[in-house]
Design brief:
homodimer; alpha/beta; about 10% strand; globular; TIM Barrel
């Protein structure tokens, strides 16, 4: 099978750097943190991903044993060519916002190395890929510097934050300079959970419990951004929640609206109903979508009050990859398909070039 | 206005003990913890309830300044007589499960004192009230002893747990003896959040954020109980989630089912689809219900796949009290009204006497 008739903008593709590969890109002052002192990324999750390939699709690992998402050729073969993607938005894997706040200077430098590695090894090698500026939210000034450094790159389309284990919801004003910078450069703010994201009761006894409750941190970030006025400061800023699905969105809209009606005196800077803010400024990458019939799916769209909130994503190369051909109800009307598979993403990723060149 | 035509079983009424009032009921060995050493209940929430009466309806406070829920006469006037309640289920306010696990013996004794105070001051004084056996989950053996001590009381209908700040979801097998005891005596397991319940990102900057995210701990407890096999061990046990509303339930059912399909090998003791377990064994007290139209409300019922999951509650005397006359869509069909206002509760609270005597 070759391509689908649909134009696809895939809002969640994880390219992956082996740590050693980043060292040549890293500020010389910090290389020994990795090469000598053996720093590795924090990983708080007390389980492995209990599936045939661990975190990845078993068939996405390379023949020489590197993890899924390490190899451009495999990404092309298994995704970009397979489904005829118009665009793939790279969302990375190594993001300092998900780590402990300590060693901020090192981690900010690591994000610089990561971004340069991403450009050289991915964006420069396939014209269908666009990228994310990874930043260290725990060093807001450094994050702003990194955004400014790369803001003119023609294929950087968003600023990327991963959610870590600390109690620091992203709405806190100490982080607002990062959003000011994103808004200034018309970059989308992408928010992704991580293997360090907790739940309301910490890490439960089984992986299935944690994986079921992953949407909680997305709900928490929406609430934090909305009630701390990020969208009132930046009415043009677009935020996309990536890899949390969307079936929690109606509940969250109702609950935020109810609480806003009752308690808005506490947050007088919030001027719109929270559900309106969501509809105007927040989007949701679809994966991992539950197995919905068209009737169930359309009911959810109806409850959200807009068919412009969902942006298709595969989450390649993870084990719970969503195929563009199977994940969503196949009997969805064509106009809605077009919206979810490309138009909704195109509407928020305004920096996306008009059209990708033909594949190499 | 006097009574409604409906029979009402109110599944969440908070009677409240001033701490001093409990001392005479407390084991002598522990009285000095309160009277001399000044112990007060843990309260982790870093905000006050930012409403006219704080935690309570302003009109539910007593003339001499005691908090709402302290006075039986006011409860009778404002709720039981006002709406013609058939039954009010007392859910308390002081529950050791929501506190730090330390000083377990003292807190277990405090629950005994609380329960005796509840019986003498509330159950013995109004025949329309039934009660909850409050237990200290952090002392499972003590909790079982307390259940056994009171299991023969004709108007105790459930075992009550409040959710605290610690990472100890209730599905953990160390707590299962408590559920064994509840099941043995046909007591419902009631689960309630507390002012110590966290969110996935801890305590945010504003009260409205925390209050919006309260449903998270209920989702976490459902997931924990389901995937740790509590309902497989006890297929007749009924659990009710109290004061978290219910608009999160469709999302949670879909997400649990999806994860179960993909990852059930990890939890082979779970034999049914999680959404079936919910439909068969878990119920949700309605308050604080969002402002739903009948169309929205019936869509939610449809998504849950059962009209037997919701049990009406007022949450008296809290500030966001739900009136039986206004909280739910008034144009709901009569048969569904009967289910939500009384029949669904009656079906799970099997120990509820057939009919309350006429009011005193």
């Amino acid at each position: 099978m070759s391509t689908t008739a649909l134009s696809i903008i895939d809002t969640d593709i994880h390219e992956r750097a082996e740590l050693d590969a980043l060292v040549p890109y890293l500020d010389k002052r910090f290389r020994h943190y990795i090469t000598e002192a053996g720093w590795v990324p924090d990983r708080v999750l007390p389980y492995t991903q209990l599936t045939a390939g661990g975190l990845d699709r078993a068939d996405a690992k390379t023949a020489d044993g590197r993890p899924g998402g390490s190899d451009l050729g495999m990404l092309q073969e298994q995704v970009l060519d397979e489904y005829g993607h118009e665009w793939g938005i790279l969302t990375g894997w190594l993001n300092a916002s998900a780590f402990h706040p300590g060693w901020a200077e090192f981690k900010t430098a690591l994000m610089t190395a990561y971004n340069d590695w991403q450009i050289e090894n991915w964006l420069d090698k396939d014209d269908r890929l666009v990228g994310s500026i990874h930043v260290n939210i725990h060093d807001p000034k450094g994050a702003v510097r990194e955004i400014e450094r790369l803001a003119d790159h023609p294929r950087m389309v968003q600023v990327m934050l991963y959610i870590g284990p600390t109690d620091s919801p992203f709405g806190d004003p100490i982080y607002h300079p990062v959003y000011d910078a994103a808004a200034r450069h018309n970059l989308v703010l992408g928010i992704h959970h991580s293997e360090n994201s907790r739940t309301a009761l910490g890490f439960h006894r089984y992986f299935i419990e944690w994986h079921t409750l992953v949407p909680q941190v997305f709900m928490s970030e929406v609430v934090s951004l909305v009630f701390n006025g990020v969208f009132d400061k930046h009415p043009d800023l677009k935020v996309i929640m990536i890899e949390g699905g969307f079936s929690y969105v109606p509940h969250l809209m109702w609950k935020m609206d109810q609480q806003y009606r009752e308690l808005r005196a506490e947050v007088p800077w919030v001027k719109r109903m929270p559900s309106d803010i969501v509809r105007e400024q927040i989007r949701f990458a679809t994966q991992p979508v539950e197995e919905f019939t068209w009737e169930q799916f359309s009911q959810l769209i109806d409850q959200m009050g807009s068919d412009e909130l969902l942006c298709f994503s595969t989450d390649y190369p993870h084990w719970d990859f969503d195929s563009p051909l199977e994940a969503l109800p196949t009997d969805m009307p064509d106009d809605l398909k077009r919206k979810i598979f490309s138009e909704n993403a195109r509407a928020i990723y305004e920096r996306l070039p008009a059209k990708a060149p033909a594949a190499a």
